[in-house]
Amino acid sequence: MVAQGLTREQLAAFERDGFLLVPGELSPERVKALFDETAKLLADFQLSDHPLTKFSTEEKAHIGDDYFLKSSDKVRFFFEPDAFDERGELTRPKERAINKIGHALHNLNKVFRSDTINDRNRAIAQSIGFKDPLVLQSMIICKQPEIGGKVPSHQDSVFLYTRPPSAVGFWYALEDCTAENGALSFVPGSHKWANIAKRMIRVDGNKQGTGFIKLDGIEPPREPVEKEFIMPACPAGTLVLIHGSLLHKSETNKSQKSRYAYTFHMIEGEYEYDNLNWLQVPPTEEGGRDFTHLCG
Description:
The protein is of the alpha+beta class. It has a single domain (8-279), classed as Jelly Rolls. 17% of the residues lie in helices and 22% in strands. The chain has six helices and 13 strands. The model has no long low-confidence stretch (mean pLDDT 92).
């Protein structure tokens, strides 16, 4: 049977709103498989030789060490800043201290690869207009109980920049997402008026890690007010498609329940992805980049 992409109604909703929720995209069996694999990864990694790199989405706190910058072809673990005390020691078990795991699960982990590189996702990509969809990065976002960090209003194409912007996120809920544990919120339609006016880059030949630069001649989007955001119901197994220009966010998880999600990002292979981007895919022997082509 040929895999189907988005229906006409779903495509219209995605084009109108800049996001789309597809409930039940992952079966309960697949949700459990991905959740259990996440738990295994968290249990198996060792602290003894780990750099304890912290990850924050706050613009002034972005990281840029080698462990982070050289993660495009690896599976690496990044900590919540609030998992440490003033002496720099963990205040909780390591399994409850990780912010995210990334960025090459789609290539290196067969469990996550099967829910990334498949006919259904190819069909979805093609139905929203991709000619050569590339899987650029993949992550497990843990949103840990009590300390799962706030993600301010942002646009994914700022971090995964192509010329012109093309990023689309595939975001799979592995647990029920609620207001209490930090569900996603969106400004519907903001992808139509919120320009990509800056980008995150490697600074000064990587010596200073990462930073942000403004794009010439592009007016930055206004900051949306709280009442513009909506938080749709998002039970486990839901796929959320997110346009790269859409303004979205999530709040701190202050509950006693985690909010695991698996996400990967596509870019259009026919567009330019340059050397300024913080995430650099290793080169091929032919001098190109070893991108993962969703369409084979």
